[in-house]
C-alpha cells in the first residue's frame, strides 16, 4: 500500500475503473471513489457490530478514529 500511495499522482484519482459485481452488472468508479469507500467501509461494519452488541446488552467498544490516535 505504501508503494501504491507513494506512486499515486493527483491525476490518478480521477481515473475510472470498471468492475463487475457477482450478478454480472458493470459499474464504473473513480479511483477517488474507491479509496473513499475503502476508508469508510470498515467504520460501517464496526457500527454494525456495536449495534448488535447493544441489542444483547453488551456495552460496545469505542470506534471513533480520534480515540485510537489519543
Describe this structure in words.
- This protein has 70 residues and is of the alpha+beta class.
- It has one domain.
- The chain is 50% helix and 14% strand.
- The chain has a two-stranded antiparallel ribbon with strand order 1-2.
- Strand 1 (16-20) and strand 2 form a beta hairpin.
- The model has no long low-confidence stretch (mean pLDDT 91).
- Keywords: Metal-binding.
- This is Damage-inducible protein DinB.
- InterPro entries: DinB, DinB/YfiT-like.
Low-confidence stretches: none
Strand tally: 2
- Write down the secondary-structure element order: HEEHH
Q: Strands of the largest sheet, in order across it? A: 1-2
Portion of residues within helices: 40-55%
Q: Helix count?
A: 3
Amount of beta strand? 5-15%
Which word captures the global form?
A: flat
How are the SSEs ordered, and which strands pair?
Elements: H1 2-6, E1 16-20, E2 26-30, H2 31-55, H3 65-69
Antiparallel strand pairs: 1-2
Features:
70 residues; alpha+beta; two-stranded antiparallel sheet; 3 helices
Amino acid at each position: 500500500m505504501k508503494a501504491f500511495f507513494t506512486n499515486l499522482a493527483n491525476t490518478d484519482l480521477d481515473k475510472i475503473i470498471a468492475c463487475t459485481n457477482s450478478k454480472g452488472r458493470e459499474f464504473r468508479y473513480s479511483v477517488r471513489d474507491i479509496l473513499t469507500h475503502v476508508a469508510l467501509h470498515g467504520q460501517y461494519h464496526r457500527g454494525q457490530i456495536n449495534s448488535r452488541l447493544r441489542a444483547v446488552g453488551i456495552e460496545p467498544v469505542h470506534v471513533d478514529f480520534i480515540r485510537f490516535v489519543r
